[in-house]
Specification:
The chain contains 73 helices and two strands. It is mostly helical. Among the domains are: about 835-930; about 1125-1240, Tetratricopeptide repeat domain (Serine Threonine Protein Phosphatase 5, Tetratricopeptide repeat, Alpha Horseshoe), CATH 1.25.40; about 1245-1280. A two-stranded antiparallel ribbon has the order 1-2. It starts with a helix and ends with a helix. The relative contact order is 0.02.
Length: about 1300
Amino acid sequence: MAFSRIGLLCHRFSRQQQQQRQHHRPFTSKLDNTRFLHPNQSKLAHNLIAIFTRQPFSPEDPELLRLAPELNTKVVETVLNGFKRWGLAYLFFNWASKQEGYRNDMYAYNAMASILSRARQNASLKALVGDVLSSRCLMSPGALGYFVRCLGNAGLVEEASSVFDRVREMGLCVPNAYTYNCLLEAISKSKSSSVELVEARLQEMRDCGFHFDKFTLTPVLQVYCNNGKSERALSVFNEILSRDWLDEHISTILVVSFCKWGQVDKAFELIEMLEERHIRLNYKTYCVLIHGFVKESRIDKAFQLFEKMRRMGMNADIALYDVLIGGLCKHKDLEMALSLYLEIKRSGIPPDRGILGKLLCSFSEESELSRITKVIIGDIDTKSVMLLYKSLLEGFIRNDLVHEAYSFIQNLMGNHESDGMSEIVKLLKDQNKAILPDSDSLSIVIDCLVKANKVNMAVTLLHDIVQNGLIPSLMMYNNIIEGMCKEGRSEESLKLLAEMKDAGVEPSQYTLNCIYGCLAERCDFAGALDLLKKMRFYGFEPWIKHTTCLVKKLCENGKAVNACKYIDDVAGEGFLRHMVSYTAAIEGLIRNEGVDRGLELFRDTCANGHCPDVIAYHVLIKALCKACRTTEADNLFNEMVSKGLKPSVATYNSMIDGWCKEGEIDRGLSCIVRMYEDEKNPDVITYTSLIHGLCASRRPSEAISRWNEMKGKDCYPNRITFMALIQGLCNCGWSSEALVYFREMEEKEMEPDSAVYLSLVSSFLSSENISAGFGIFREMVHKGRFPVSVDRNYLLAVDATSDVNYAYRFLSKLSHPPDYGWNFVIRGFSNSRNPEKSIRVYIQILRSGFSPDHMTYPFLLKSSSRLSNREIGWSLHCSVVKIGLEWDLFICNTLIHMYGSFRDKASARKLFDEMPYKNLVTWNSILDAYAKCGDVVSARLVFDEMTTRDVVSWSSMIDGYVKSGEYNEALEIFDQMMRMGSSKANEVTMVSVLCACAHLGALNRGKVVHRYILDVHLPLTVILQTSLIDMYAKCGSIGEAWGVFCGASVKETDALMWNAMIGGLASHGFIRESLQLFHKMQESKIDPDEITFLCLLAACSHGGLVKEAWHFFTSLMESGAEPKSEHYACMVDVLSRAGLVKDAHDFISEMPIKPTGSMLGALHNGCINYGNLELAETVGKKLIELQPHNDGRYVGLANVYAINKQFGAARSMREAMEKKGVKKIAGHSIIELNGTSHRFIAHDKTHFHSDKIYAVLQLIGTWMNFDVDYDDSEDCHCFCS
């Protein structure tokens, strides 16, 4: 086998090596430090040793100071070697090194290094390396080699290599081959030495022209073996073998390595080869090899080596016998193991307990243990007997011989001898070695009996143990009590607990909690409380899982109040209340008494200082979402996050499902974003809810995208997911696509239910694909999937498709439709475009005997709010009171919301004040009611009174200020919300804030709000994008508005967004662009609405496009829409601006509605601008009649008189204003600077910088009148600074 690197090196220098061979000292030789000393120096060394070993030692000893000047290196070396303790040697060396006139040579350093190396004092040895280098002590190659070997022996390979290089670089020594060999030996001492380091040093030797010898290649072989480089190691070994350098040490290295590598056969071949060369391995090597063979389960090879040792006259010791017997026991070779054991006895070596233990523990059959017992009976002691018992019992148990184990113990205790005594027991008794079993053996049997459901036998054995004078262990009692508790025998376990006390065995926490768990499972309220008293006596804590179990059991039995009382009783016994138990009680209250009772307990728990955990929040969030109170759930969700709790995937799923069911799909999608931020991966339930919600929101393409995303993340859809997608696509009219997924579902052998078939049939029929519809229908009938009865799941499926009309028709055909089905229908209609249908259905089903409940009225009240029908609302309120639901929290909150929609704040407040229980939704409802009524003062009082606020509270207050025109106050509330940080703004909040910015013209503030929306990853919904476009347009930044518009996908836009952009372009003078955008809107198949035409007419008005205006006005009428007064006003403005004031007057006269102030005002301005003062006077008088308190109308008519030079008439207009108390409102301008709005009126000097402002204006006026050539920056700076 060629040794590529070292072989080449050796071959290169082979001839030189034959001609001139340099012999180096072996690595194991020691440097000769016993140099000749003069008698006076010997005496000096003796005295120094005496002084340093004398206690107490003082470096200021006068005798020591007297001897210091006589120091030399020979004396120091002799003294160092004379100490028996390294600490004294190191102390002396440091003292000597500091003496004036003395300097260490390398022999002294090596003497100290040798002492520290043997003592493994690596820290001191590292310090010595520094001393050697700093002293710049010259040294011979042999001295350097010796120093390096000392470092290597201590495992300091890096230091050895470093000092070798430093000494060479500093010129303190020129290393020779011996020095390099020492370095290689040092490197080989470390198990982690790298092959690259060794090979680099070999390359250095080659470059220096040194020859490789045995002492060079031996450490190289060691390093290769340490690193598992078997091929390279064999190459080096072959090189050594070819040069006849092989010895016992080199052979041992490779043989031991073969064993470590698991190459046992190669190791054995090498041993045989060594025997042929008459190389004999030492005893230690043989032991290592035998151990390796046994470890590799090669017992045959191990015994071959063992025989070789015998032939060579090597006597095995007890450790080697232990290894061999252990290997035989492992392979279940009982005959050989016993034979070897007898050989030990014959050789006179006393067998130790380890060998006995291996024999007893490796076999478990009674026949095998009997044979072992016969052989070792004379050598076993008490511990060995116990091992015998344990092995036998474990064998019984392993073979399911429970009765035999029980009988064996009874035999030992002297019972059931007539049934036959065990052979082992007889043997032990014959030799007087039989003793009673210990606690471990007895515990093994009792545990076995309990696990075999033989608890009564275990109890009998326990009593026998006590009668034999043994004290049962705690583990025995615990095992039996655990068995009894699993069988529900709580009374017997309590009786055994009393027996424990009599036996003097104190119960553990496990003992009492086993019984506690049993009582909890049996719902034994009183028994559990009694046991808690015992726990308190012993100082133990009840396990929370058992307390929680009892609470759950009580709740399941309809005793949720008792469950809450039990938690208080636990605290009354001095134990801590745990949130887990409260969570169980909250869940029980929700199930039995409704979500509000659960929420009440939750708040009480928090108020008492308990910190709710993720599970508690999840239980409430899930319940609120199921009760269609997702806004409240969202508040709890945000509260949980603000407390640093990480919502689980299940919690996110509940939120997503809640938003989807309420039609807030964008808010559901925002939850997905938050999931990714929390590093939570959506699961199949998450995607199912999203797919259902997207389809319900008529966004089927996004639903399919989510489906593909789910599959791309190795989250595979289940049966429910398939059905949600298929039914959702059917509802959206995508019947062909739905059929594709239906077939895929069938391929995966998932059975769709009848609702899926019906959805497909309905969808195909709706799309007039009758053949496909009837084909699915035939499949449904053929497979027996036709719905013969209705259940809740089917109605949920119908609800999932949002096909409320179909659900209504389906229920109407049933003879006894379920009440909850009608609730689904009423809810569906209340959320539809025709909420009045829910009222009609309600009246119809009342006549058929329907009994409304607490889930019926909230959606009916919602419908009356949307219809603004006070009579229906009052009637529903009366019905609520009549059937006793007047204080249902959900209904009361909806009533307050309804009265707010009616602008009836008095009724809303009266109901609010009378409510016995209020939650956050209640406060939000009354706040919103005041805001809708325009009473922002009362709304602010409510807002300030609220102890807890959520995003709905803040949004309602902001929106109230915006609708009342108090835009600065709205922004102040938003700033306060951001500072407090308790609630995160949502879409509703940001729409109101953007509206305020738009009205104030606060562009910079609007940009900050836009940046905030992006930073918090708020979903850019259509409404939010429309608000941004409107804000930028009204603030004068039409480019930013266009950027937002272009950033939206056409598929996700609606008419409102297009209207905002068209109107914005028109108001900035981009008339043609606004009309082109309208044509693009038509191409995108977005239907224009009344607002679209209003924006177009306004654009025509600004651009003077009379022909186009008539076209758009005619198109509006042809679309079937009734033009509003705003449309007429725009047409009048178009005609008036174009100078067609006569046509405008005729248009007003002929229109079907009465003229408004805006229409006549536009005509009036047109008459003035184009000089038709006669008509202007007529129109002006009509305006004053129409709007007698509008100051602008008087000023306008006065201006007409002034133009006609009728100054008396003009003055009369001013006098008429004063007589009627009409005051002229000063016009003002608003300028935003650095985010702050500044308001100015004509000749205003109230601003705190008014002097500088007017100075700059004067300077600007001067520059406008003169041609300025010089640099004006300095003058400008003096005014602006």
